[in-house]
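Progress against Task 2.4 (sequence-to-structure conversion) is shown through the following example record, which the project officer requested during the mid-term review.
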Amino acid sequence: MIGLLQRVKQASVVVEGECVGRIGQGILLLLGIEKEDDENKAQRLCQRVLNYRIFSDAADRMNLNLQQIKGELLVVSQFTLVADTRKGNRPSFSSAADPQLSEKLYEYFIQQARDSGIQCQTGQFGADMQVELINDGPVTFQLSI
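Structure tokens generated for the chain above:
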């Protein structure tokens, strides 16, 4: 399971001209799910995302997590994160989970985040989405479980 997290001032997701998710300050998380992923991995990645210290404290050091700043989370499924790009001119998606497993774990991840008390918005699984964001920093990290 791969999470690409971006510290944002704001972010939104549009599907077919309609905004389906919008947040203010927080994290935009692009989530890629692989064949061997399960609920345990989803739960561990969720905890890492929520506790990852990427927000500035009073001394302007990255010491605060999403919960400490009372930030929001926008989760967007993105199977292209699991692509193998090591050779050739076309990505391979052989390690990507099938859509049924991916959607199940995507929904599980979102429920874990919401159960933690975080304000969590989402994209629309499997849809063609347009994602807009104001990246704060920019600050971007890839987390893998």
